[in-house]
Amino acid sequence: DGDVEEATCDILVGCDGKRSVVRELAGIAFNGSHYPDTYMMGDFEDTTPFGEDAMITLHQDGLVECFPLAKGRRRWVVKTAQYVDAPTEQELKEIVAHRTGFDLRQAQCTMTSSFGVQHYIAETFAKGRVVLAGDAAHVVSPIGGQGMNLGWLDGEALAKALHAFLSTQNERHLQDYSKRQRSIARQAGKRAEWNMRLGRSFKNRWVKRWILYLFVRTPIQRVLAQLFTMQKLGAWRV
Fold this sequence. Notes:
- The longest helix has 28 residues, at 172-199.
- This protein starts with 11 loop residues before the first strand and ends in a 10-residue tail after the last helix.
- It contains six helices and nine strands.
- It has two domains: 12-29 and 123-200, 3-Layer(bba) Sandwich (FAD/NAD(P)-binding domain), CATH 3.50.50; 36-114, Alpha-Beta Plaits.
- The strands form two sheets. It has a six-stranded antiparallel beta sheet, with helices on both faces.
- It is of the alpha+beta class.
- It has helices spanning 21-25, 89-100, 147-168, 172-199, 205-217, 221-228; strands at 12-14, 30-45, 55-59, 62-68, 73-80, 109-122, 126-127, 130-132, 138-139.
């Protein structure tokens, strides 16, 4: 309505998303770019035998993954050669059938959409008494499912940092929060990028077979699985 209100506070936390006004007014740079990868996804009645498990197929034409949702539904995500502006239920069903063998023709579809992938990170998560969290601080690829999880991790760490700051008035606690959470966001971004590369089409099928062999037939399979599923963020440097 055009009214302007002014408020004074000890600290300002920007949780206002990728296009954060708080971040912009604080003069904090937001660096990153778009990946060339594009995906199509849809929610279907779950007719698979997977139950609560997720499934990933690394097909020569590109990745397919699916995971359970509430109310007996399952989300399917497929890698596409280019962005599909208005994906149809039939297109998604055909790709899933071709790459995985699963027949979704009788499964009810409730949603289809397409998305591109981008990665951005603020140059700092704390500038003076202005602090960033969530998408205002970092945007990572949804492959790996860490966007919301990173936000929760920010919230948990920021609660501790704010308590320490309000008790001591020492801004070092805010900088410590920034350093640690930015490191975690960078790790998640790198792992998500690695996951995307694994899901791209392979011209040399032997490369993919070698990678899969490492995943399932070698002693390091557990470590690779933890990296792929974003476990131990902050505990490792990768």
